[in-house]
Amino acid sequence: MNKRHGWWPVLALLSLLLSGSISANASHKKMNMEKKALIIIDVQNDYFKGGKMELFRPDAAADNIRRILEKCRKEGVPVIYIQHAADAAGGFLVANTTGAEIHPSVLPLPGEKIITKHYPNSFRETALLDYLKQIGVSNLIITGMMTHVCVDATTRAAKDLGFHCTVIADACATRALEVDHEKVSAADVQRALIGSLGFYYADIVNTQQYLMR
After folding, report:
1. pLDDT single digits (tens) 151-176
2. Strands 36-41 and 139-145
3. How wide is the angle at C-alpha 78 spanned by C-alphas 111 and 38, nearest 5°?
4. Cα separation of 92 and 177, whole Å?
5. What's the predicted TM-score (pTM) here?
6. CB-based burial label for 35 (10 Å; 0-12, 13-18, 19+)
7. Distance (Å, whole) CA 57 – CA 1
8. Among 4, 83, 110, 131, which is least packed by CB within 10 angstroms?
C-alpha cells in the first residue's frame, strides 16, 4: 500500500479530532458567556451630587461600572439594570422623579433589561429570578449602590438562591453611617461590608482585576 495513502486515514482522524476539540472549546466558551450576567444596582441620580442621598465618591464607582459595562457589552454578556422605585415616604429614589432616573454615565442601550424593585433585595417581588433562569445565567457580576443596603441584600439573596457571585468592590458606593452616636466613615463602611460579603457570599475583585480577565 502507498505510504502516503496509508497515512491518510490517520491524518484525517487527527484532523477530525482537532476540529471537534476546537468546536467543543468554542462551545464551552460560549456556554460560559451565556451563563454570566452583569447586574447594575440602583445607579440613580439621587445618589450623586445634588441628589437627595449623595454617596461617597459615586462618580468614581459609576466610572468603573461604565468600564465594566463596556467590556460586558463587547463580550456579549447580558446586562441587567436594577432600578429602585420608592414611594414618597422613602424620601429618595421616589418613583417617577428625576432622582430615580438611571444616571447618565451608565444609561442602558435599547433592549437591555431593566427591572424595577421596591425593596433592597433585588429578587424580592421582582422578575429577576425568573429572567435569570430564562436566559440560563448562573454567575452574577454585581455592581452598584448602596453597598451597605441593596448591593449587600441582593448579593446575599443571590448566593442563597444558588448563584455564584462576584462583587466588584470599587464599582460599588456607600456613605458614612452613624452607630451609637459615632460616625463611621464611608471607607470603613465599604471595607466592612465588602469584607463580610467576601467571607462567604461572593468573590471580591476590583475593576482592573476584572478587566484583565
Report:
1. 999 999 999 999 999 999 999 999 99
2. parallel
3. 120
4. 17
5. 0.84
6. middle
7. 77
8. 110
Query: Over 50: is that where the pLDDT of 30 sits?
Result: no
Residue pair 119/14 in contact by the 8 Å Cβ criterion: no
DSSP SS3 for 84 = strand
Considering only CA atoms, give the Rg of the chain: 22
- Packing angle, helices 152-160 and 186-200, rounded to 10: 0
Q: pLDDT digit string (tens) for 60-102?
A: 999 999 999 999 999 999 999 999 999 999 899 999 999 999 9
Tell me the C-alpha distance between 210 and 77, whole Å.
Answer: 14
DSSP states of 100-137: GSBPGGGPPPTT-EEEEESSSSTTTTSSHHHHHHHTT-
Please state, in angstroms and rounded to a whole number, the distance separating the CA atoms of residues 50 and 134. Answer: 38
